[in-house]
Amino acid sequence: MLFGDWQICFQTYIDIYNLEGQKDPEKIQRAREVMEYQMSTDANDYWWWADGLYMVMPVMTKLYNVTGNELYLEKLHEYLSYSNSIMYDEEAQIYFRDAKYVYPKHKSANGKKDFWARGNGWVFAGLAKVIQDLPKDAKYREEYITRYKAMAKSLKEAQQPEGYWTRSILDPAHAPGPETSGTAFFTYGYLWGVNNGILDKKTYIPIIEKSWKYLTEVALQDDGRVGYVQPIGERAIPGQIVDVNSTADFGVGAFLLAASEMYRFLK
InterPro entries recorded for this chain (predicted)? Predict the structure, then answer.
């Protein structure tokens, strides 16, 4: 249970617990057992891949808000600091998927840094969720906002004219064509930032308008399916077919996250 993919369900358990008035502590009993055991260990390398930041960072902030235990926020910062040390690129201000893909050990087909879109989507969306959950005076909140804003600026420059982001963010030719899951996560992150007064409207609404147009007019099909979702994986794969028939639950979920924030924006 110490692998992030098996911990993301705790986010939903905590949300249900809160929505129902915190009446049944059994709903979050397993979440607390697992996370409090994890925090009791000396290890800090639990989040060694980009996806893991989305899976578990919000678990930590949600459990802090339920319990008031400051250790959740301290361990969140400790684990994230380790992740940053092995995956974050200071120059590009975005994340490699994991240490295997750090440049120049790994390069794109054209010799460039290879940043996976969905991986950065997980991180960008995860930071939004964390900032949303943190008290205004939380110790590390401004640090996370600074990182979130830096990612927003960097990702903005890589958006394609058609509104999507390619699977390898800075090398569109590596795996060309639209991809929905990364684009949807970025759209969610941008909309959340605008809706909460963290990102400048004038700067980012044009980015949102283009990506939303792609999501609703290209990715979304007449029968309700969401297409152009890269299959399960961990990198952009040259030659991999991603087309109108490519769909997956995580792509649909990212689309719905973006839609929820667009609903708030329009209201």
Answer: 6-hairpin_glycosidase_sf (IPR008928), 6hp_glycosidase-like_sf (IPR012341), Glyco_hydro_88 (IPR010905), PolySaccharide_Degr_Enz (IPR052043)
